[in-house]
Design goal:
The complex is a heterodimer.
Chain A: H1 2-41, H2 44-49, H3 65-96, H4 99-114, H5 117-135, H6 144-180, H7 185-196, H8 198-214, H9 217-222, H10 239-246, H11 255-285
Helix pairs in contact in A: 1-11, 3-6, 3-8, 4-6, 5-6, 6-7, 6-8, 8-11, 10-11
Chain B: H1 2-37, H2 42-46, E1 49-50, E2 57-58, H3 61-92, H4 96-111, H5 114-128, H6 135-160, H7 163-171, H8 176-205, H9 208-213, H10 232-241, H11 246-277
Antiparallel strand pairs in B: 1-2
Helix pairs in contact in B: 1-11, 3-6, 3-8, 4-6, 5-6, 6-8, 7-8, 8-11, 10-11
Classes of the chains: A mainly alpha, B mainly alpha.
Chain lengths: 287, 278
């Protein structure tokens, strides 16, 4: 009786595991299948390098170069703002703050990571965009910069926790010997902890980049959503926001519908590459 | 001398970044609580949306219930798959190569943006399988989203169990399934539930996957798996995006954050109970 049960359990586990792993293949395959229809009409190269997005006109007007640029631009701005702050707080948390406070602050940062992106978008719209418009007198507050600032707050927890994990280890390893040698703490942190954590800082950057590029709601609410060439203080469009905004309007099976799948495919390929790189970097440093 | 200046600059840098993180976090919470507190009352929590445009008056009860239903479906679906995958990787898989492949795949799934999952859910579940925009489609899509999140944590929990207990069980000739249900599961039950709860909070806050697969502007409390639902994040997006009512947006945000906070507390408490027993 138990033997049979054991066998059944084993088979069920294996099947469910296989199914979960196939899910990724399903996702890629489905998005790919729907995009192929589009690529039959519009060559891949035209789609990626063209600068016009106008789903109501001819198929040649469906291209997303500006939108890809917008996606990258916002994410890079976010990383530039978030990286120094995140790495700094990571160092602070792993070397200077101890005991109860460390747990409390880590908890707060974890909660920060748990705030839904739509709430970030809401706050961004009411605080950042309003600030740009009213206080700084910009013609439009909805801009790449607003999106970048907002995204930087959203990716901070990822950067802090990735950095801190390694820095904790490095610090513990060397703190006793550096104390014995009478080296000042700041000097030791600067010369040993930071250089030793180089790889995890890179991993944090890549992780944050991936998260920032795939972020939908928050960015969509503050970036203005205009498929034009992105400027720091002008409106732009990102691939996720394009899909979220237009999918509801696109008729199933129309060229517009397939074009949105094609942009989803482009986004997913970029992110899969980022994640595979991330996996190998993480494996290299053992976290 | 130069080293001293460098050290001072370094200290300023890390202190400043800590201060920025602290203040931005407190600002976000203070902002939501200060503005939302005025308009949250029992009537708002237990009422249905009313007014023209819809949502400018009344409450958000159907959205709260909808969000909870979505979370439950997502958790059941995701944890079933995630726990099975973890059991497979930790107790059945013998080849390191397969283990690595599983890890790469899970990592990639964690990196698939939520809107692409929404797109996938839309074609497969809504259009191809004809489930329509419904509780089921949206719940399953959210489940796919939180699957990697649960899998990574559960696998870590399994690996932390000392292998000597499991090996002695095997050595006594006890079968794998019996060992799992009678030995491994009781040890780490509450930690697994804690991981699932945390993931549930994550699913509850996500708006992008459900925009295409199930969330609608107004629906009564869902009666079956195939009825469309209201969800808090989507409701907030509509209220803000369409500029319906700022006051209600603040209140909705506060309720959403409050619910997530409760879920987080439950999750943390579950881990602590476990630690206390040990």
């Amino acid at each position: 009786m138990y033997k049979l049960l054991d066998k059944v359990f084993g088979i069920v586990i294996k099947l469910l595991a296989l199914f979960s792993l196939l899910l990724l293949a399903f996702i890629v395959l489905f998005i790919f299948k729907e995009s192929v229809v589009f690529f039959k009409e519009v060559p891949v190269l035209n789609f990626i390098t063209g600068r016009r997005w106008n789903p109501l006109k001819s198929p040649n007007d469906l291209s997303i170069f500006n939108i890809i640029l917008g996606t990258l631009y916002v994410s890079v701005v976010a990383i530039i703002i978030a990286l120094p702050i995140g790495v700094g707080s990571g160092i602070l948390l792993s070397t200077y703050i101890k005991g109860k406070w460390k747990i409390v602050i880590r908890g707060i940062i974890d909660i920060l990571a748990g705030i839904p992106s739509v709430v970030y978008g809401f706050i961004g719209l009411l605080v950042i965009v309003k600030f740009f418009e009213n206080t700084l007198d910009f013609s439009t507050g909805e801009s790449v910069l607003a999106g970048g600032i907002l995204l930087s707050a959203m990716v901070l927890p990822y950067i802090i926790s990735t950095c801190q994990e390694t820095m904790d280890k490095v610090y513990e390893e060397h703190s006793l010997s550096s104390k014995a040698l009478g080296i000042s703490k700041t000097y030791m942190v600067r010369k040993i902890v930071v250089p030793e954590s180089r790889k995890s800082i890179i991993a944090a950057t890549i992780l944050a980049l991936g998260r920032a590029m795939g972020e939908t709601m928050a960015v969509m609410m503050v970036i203005g959503n205009a498929p034009i060439a992105p400027r720091l203080l002008g409106r732009a469009q990102t691939i996720p926001s394009l899909i979220a905004l237009e999918m509801g309007m696109a008729e199933v099976g129309s060229l517009h519908y397939h074009a949105l799948f094609a942009s989803g495919l482009v986004l997913m390929i970029m992110l899969l590459i980022i994640n595979i790189i991330l996996y190998y970097i993480k494996k290299g440093i053992g976290i | 001398m130069l080293e001293n200046i460098k050290s001072a600059l370094f200290k300023i840098w890390i202190t400043l970044s800590g201060v920025i993180v602290f203040f931005s976090t407190s600002f976000i919470f203070a902002y939501i609580i200060k503005n939302g507190f005025k308009s949250v009352n029992l009537e708002f929590i237990f009422g249905s949306p009313q007014g023209i445009p819809l949502g400018s008056e009344g409450g958000i009860f159907p959205a709260i219930v909808g969000s909870l239903f979505l979370m439950i479906i997502a958790c059941i679906f995701a944890s079933l798959l995630a726990i099975s995958t973890s059991i497979y990787v930790v107790y059945y898989c013998k080849s390191l190569k397969i283990e690595n492949i599983v890890h790469v795949i899970v990592q990639c799934m964690a990196g698939v943006p939520s809107i692409v999952l929404g797109l996938f859910g839309y074609t497969l579940l809504v259009v191809n399988l004809k489930l329509g925009r419904s509780l089921l489609s949206a719940g399953l899509t959210l489940g796919i989203m939180i699957f990697p999140f649960i899998q990574v944590r559960v696998e870590k929990i399994f690996r932390e169990i000392s292998s000597s207990i499991i090996n002695s069980s095997y050595a006594l000739g006890i079968s794998k399934s019996y060992t799992f249900f009678k030995l491994i599961l009781p040890i780490c039950k509450s930690e697994i539930v804690s991981a699932i709860t945390l993931a549930g909070g994550f699913a509850m806050g996500a708006a992008a996957p459900i925009i295409l697969t199930g969330a609608v502007i107004f629906a009564p409390i869902p009666k079956s798996l195939s009825s469309p639902v209201m969800a808090l994040p989507f409701h907030l997006y509509i209220l803000t995006g369409e500029g319906i009512s700022l006051e209600k947006s603040y209140a909705t945000t506060l309720v959403l954050i409050g619910l997530l906070f409760i879920i987080n507390i439950i999750s943390i408490a579950l881990t602590f109970i476990r630690k206390g027993v040990r």
